Amino acid sequence: xxxxxxxxxxxxxxxxxxxxxxxxxxxxxxxxxxxxxxxxxxxxxxxxxxxxxxxxxxxxxxxxxxxxxxxxxxxxxxxxxxxxxxxxxxxxxxxxxxxxxxxxxxxxxxxxxxxxxxxxxxxxxxxxxxxxxxxxxxxxxxxxxxxxxxxxxxxxxxxxxxxxxxxxxxxxxxxxxxxxxxxxxxxxxxxxxxxxxxxxxxxxxxxxxxxxxxxxxxxxxxxxxxxxxxxxxxxxxxxxxxxxxxxxxxxxxxxxxxxxxxxxxxxxxxxxxxxxxxxxxxxxxxxxxxxxxxxxxxxxxxxxxxxxxxxxxxxxxxxxxxxxxxxxxxxxxxxxxxxxxxxxxxxxxxxxxxxxxxxxxxxxxxxxxxxxxxxxxxxxxxxxxxxxxxxxxxxxxxxxxxxxxxxxxxxxxx
Length: 414
Known about the structure:
This is F-box protein At1g10780. By secondary structure, the chain is an alpha/beta fold. Helix content is 25%, strand content 27%. Helix 10 runs parallel beside helix 11 (391-406). The radius of gyration is 27 Å and the shape is elongated. The model has no long low-confidence stretch (mean pLDDT 90).
């Protein structure tokens, strides 16, 4: 290493970011220590200061941040005193581009005002926060250069979320994950392309989105959903693990490639609205157990197989779970089948069967999928949590195995 040019030494050492490795290298020689100002990234893992007093850990972070004159990325997962954050960020406010903080392991309970310090880092492009409190709006001013914002495990309030979004007008990616305490989320961002909103609890919360460049949208935990018709959605995922989904208004989805709708209970109007909007979808996943309004749990109404596939001509991959498959297997679901009907684009189907009831109708539906799907390559039948363990189930399994034997190149059983 002694014969390596100075710039090459600096370049090699700049590939490191782990604070412990950097501290070790600084002890090797003065030449290596002199390369620390050129470090672009500092990463403090969760246990990097285990066994040290908190004051010593804070002092070590302060020393390394002040030494790295060209610091672009700062990631702190280890416990630290939130009161020092303002001084660290002010030291590197001109060069810092990416900031990631675990606020849930700070020495003291982080008050909302501790986040105000982030506003001094005006050149931030990527910000990720864990375990913060957003019950009050942070004083960030306007972060014009911020493109990516991710907040995980936060206690939030409606007005604070709204103010945070307004403080980041140029966001391209937004993720609010595992957040709790919000009843209504309103987001209006002209540059937003990817959005992930995951809110906890069974409360009936709502979300309103207006982003003309939106391409990828994932929503979890909302009962009322409205997306402005001006968008470019290609991937849409809507889920609610507790409570109900009452209304979904997303406008037309002409460019949609992937649609996932999941939950225990959706109103039938919400399901119909999404399926109608996503008539051009190529990959559809449906995992909803019941329909019905309020506390009334009802099964899916009958769905005509011919009408469904005529309204989803471009469907290439279809994943059906339980209730949706049962709706396609009602007595009159196949009444419109004739020799002129075909499913043109369907290549792969995954069916989850949870009950052996109506075995004849289910078998007829599976046979129809194979017969009329001219490009079908794979049909997977997944038997999951079969509740009825008696002769009906035995007969159902026997018929399924026979069906697989007759279509062994296409049909698979899990």
